[in-house]
Amino acid sequence: MPVALLQTVTFAVSCVRTPGAANIGRMSTDNQNPGNDGRSSGRPFVPLQPARQLLGEKRYREAHAYCRNALEQDPDCADAFFVLGIINYEHNQFERALKLFERALEKGHPEPGAHVQAARCYAKLTLPKQALIHIDAAIKLQPSDGFTLASIGATLSALDRHEEAVAFHRQAATASSNDPIVFFNLGSSLQFIGDFEGARKAYRTCLQFAPQYIPARAYLALITKHSPEQNAVAELEAAWQQRHPRDIEGGLQLAHAIAKVHEDLADPAAAMDWLDKGKALVRQNIPSQRMQNEASFEAAEALCHTLGVNSEVQTGGPIYIVGLPRTGTTLVDRIISSHSGIVSAGERPEFGAFLKRAVGNDSADMLDAGTIKGAAGTDLLAVGQNYIESVQGILNGAQRFTDKMPINALLVPAILAALPNARVICLRRQPADSVLSIYRQLFALSALHYRCAHSLEDLADYVARFHGLVETYTGALPSSRFTLVDYETLVEEPEAETRRLLEFCGLDFEQACLDFQENTAPVATASVAQVRQPMYRSSVDRWKRYQPQLEPALEILRKAGRL
After folding, report:
1. pLDDT at 160
2. Separation of alpha carbons 343 and 394, rounded Å
3. What letter would DSSP give residue 14?
4. Residue 405 maps to which CATH number?
5. Containing domain of residue 536, as a range?
6. 516 vs 328, higher pLDDT
7. Which carries the bigger pLDDT value, residue 383 or residue 40?
8. Which of 54, 72, 188, 453 is deepest in the core (most CB within 10 A)?
9. Whole-number Cα distances in Å, 47 to 34, 63, 82, 108, 442
10. Is 350 inside a domain boundary?
11. Are 240 and 137 part of one and the same domain?
């Protein structure tokens, strides 16, 4: 999970916002060569300034009516299609928006922003290869305005191209030197590539222009080490008091930031108190996903017994790293991807997205029970082929890569059936430590499957069910293709476990895998700081420091036989 959400700058041309969770739906992807079909050749391009102005003011109905009227007068009006595309994007109608942006390009829309907006739609639809085609087309047009540069950067970051994203955010900061969101985006991308001092500087610049901007204040606190002499408690608590009461996500961000300060000050009781305050905002306003998660686990267990998984693994192929978040998945990814024969693809949503399309499920949750159940009646080999082509398209054809999307744990049988050369490494951690670590993690509200992280009771139930699922996998799946790693064993015996994992993956031992902290590749997860350090075991049994505060969760774990 990304440690920060990139925002797209508010600019006169549109009011586009945060790239969030993928919206999965059916669509045609045949048109992968965007460009002008010639029907508008020789005609001067005229931007619909009144429509753009209305859009900038969020007067969507009026902007829509203006564009429809313009199209009645001129069916080839490229900018009308462009503005209509942004309106649809703003209302999460990504497939419709994409068709409109493509239409704008067909009608000769000359602005690089049209390609960027099409790319953002493809990214939302979990089609990264097509998104990159449009990004490349936009870059070739040499954009210079801050909005387009910032949008390119945000889209690249959403596609895990963080080093490239940084370059465009820097250009955007030069072009729009007083736009706070540009500097927030720059800070987020710098954080992803491990430049924490640069990230802090960018967040501070953002706050100079927008002192009330909660995400910048919260993430600055989250990546800063606090001391009794120098800490941000006062300013964060002031922001908490001043925030809008209906700003749930802002309140959650601030609560996590204040909790981080108290952790640095060695006050676990105060830290948990603030976490509880923030998560209470979510529980009071957003429905629990506990029943839906229970159904997903039950479906995954059933699928394990339904699908036949071949024990003979082919050479090569992707290596999936799955598990609960904050249980060592990023650590194992860094170990394996430090090998000269492996690249990290990051946390890829594509397999779940392609499976969801194949099943015909249009629910908002990536891993709902319907999608998991539907895998048994789906052409999984076709799903696997689509996945490989998509991921290789953004990895320049790399044959062997890691995919460390944690929630793929619920799709392990489907993954192994769909990809005969795939292997799965599953992380497991002491349950109480898992509960604490996940509870401390700031998840975006759009992450439906991790809504359990806002309730100790829901979270304990989730962790207990995960451990049951892992036991089912271990008993039913071939050891040649599925292996379990206990986090505690890994940190106690790093070399032995590293050698075992490399052998499981069909790889020769390389010293670089033990020196994973030297790996400079970007990390877009909450473990961005930890994996740049040598192996440590200080987080083992951390839950005992918080035992009184964790008691509601511990009781559930005891009843489930997990403590």
Report:
1. 83
2. 12
3. B
4. 3.40.50.300
5. 290-307+315-559
6. 328
7. 383
8. 188
9. 20, 13, 10, 12, 41
10. yes
11. no
